[in-house]
Amino acid sequence: MKNKSVLILIFLTLSLSGFSQSFDEILKTIEDNNPEIQASEKNLKSKVYEYKSENLPSGPSFSYGYFPDNSTVSGIKTTVGISQAFQMPWYYTNQATYTKLRINREEISQKIVRQEILFQAKQQLIEYIYLSKRMAIVDKRLKFAQDIYNAYMIRLETGDANMLEVNKAKLHLMQVKKAEKNSRNRLLAIKENLKYLNGGNSLDISVNNYPVNPVIELDSLLFSKLESDPEIRYNQKAFEVANRRIKLTRSLQFPELSLGYGSETVGNESFKGIVVGVSIPLWNSRRLMQQSKLEADYFNLKNSNTQNAKISETKVTYDKVRTLNENLESYQNILASVNSEDLLKKSLDSGEISVIEFFTEMFYYYEVYDDFLIVEKEYYEALSELYKYKL
């Protein structure tokens, strides 16, 4: 019988481990199922086709004319013409580079959408872990408060306790029940939010620990962020696109050429030959050039501003992480020194402390532990924000 129980325990352990998901696996599942990410990927593919189609010259032009005879010329006149217009060769070189840069910009834009969704999911998972930890301690407190209340009801009947002590125990039980209900409702809301981010599909959330991100030196962090952050890269790429558009616009200031074949037939006479045309841009090239230069200046300034903002935000968040880490250590030291529920219960049963002192100490212990859980959550939220650019 003992061996059978061991086998069942091993089977259950393996089953649970098979269905559990790590933090990164849950984020990957959300990435695969999120409709907004899927829509951004479709939009990217659409933009790629759109931009690449602009690389090709416009199609050939075909014309046909039919003119019946009149009083001066006998016979029917027909004309046929086919021609192909094209820009100067360097225009197509600039256009190809311009298209590549625009596609790169759209790829970065899609990564920003993906990053924002995964960041939301990560923050929700951190909140889920916090609430799970809180629920675990609240469930323990609820059982403890119920046991205390039941014990004092019995002591009231035997005359070992008064009504004031029973009311204190009842009030404590009500407060713990309220905290348990609030935590449970918040946990259900988080699960629903994660389900929404997962495209309406339920998630088997079994993470119990916060994601670990070792804090690196600030200088290294700033260097890595300025190199990799999608928002910074987007503005840099947009600036490159605008600069290339200036060159492309300058190419459009040269005449557009056309080369073709034409024929004209009147009665029994026929004329055939090559047709050459030139289109000179007179009206809009200057305005296009001004627009392109202003666009380049705009993204250059925006890129500089974004970099400065990221540096400032990173420094603030970095200092916040360090402060929260110090606070965590302080709370851990306090929790190691203050009395726990079990020790307080023993002191109450032995008569070392009164009921009023017992509940005062209990509330103080609960407050300290709750603050510890909040600081721990805020610490990992700040870490998540610090390393958002890596998502």
Helix amount, in percent? over 70%
Number of helices, where a helix is a run of at least 4 consecutive DSSP H or I residues:
10
> What's the structural domain tally?
1
What is the CATH C level class, in words?
Mainly Alpha
The CATH architecture term is Up-down Bundle
Number of strands: 4
Q: What's the CATH H-level superfamily name?
A: Outer membrane efflux proteins (OEP)
Question: If strands are numbered along the chain, what order do they take across the biggest sheet?
Answer: 1-2-3-4
Which structural class fits the helix and strand makeup? alpha+beta
In CATH terms, what is the fold-level topology? Outer membrane efflux proteins (OEP)
Low-confidence stretches: 1-20
Give the C-alpha Rg. 37 Å
Terminal-residue CA separation: 50 Å
β-sheet strand percentage: 5-15%
Notable traits:
single chain; 391 residues; alpha+beta; Outer membrane efflux proteins (OEP); 4-stranded antiparallel beta sheet; 10 helices; 72% helix; 10% strand; elongated
Explain what the structure shows.
This protein is of the alpha+beta class and 391 residues long. The protein has a single domain (27-390), classed as Outer membrane efflux proteins (OEP). It has 10 helices and 4 strands. It has helices at residues 2-19, 23-33, 35-53, 89-158, 163-197, 218-228, 230-251, 285-337, 341-349, 355-386; strands at residues 61-67, 77-86, 256-266, 269-279. A 4-stranded antiparallel β-sheet has the order 1-2-3-4, with no helix packed on it. Strand 3 (256-266) and strand 4 (269-279) form a beta hairpin. Helix 4 packs antiparallel against helix 10 (355-386) and helix 7 runs antiparallel to helix 8 (285-337). The radius of gyration is 37 Å and the shape is elongated. It starts with a helix and ends in a 5-residue tail after the last helix. Mean pLDDT is 80; it is low at 1-20.
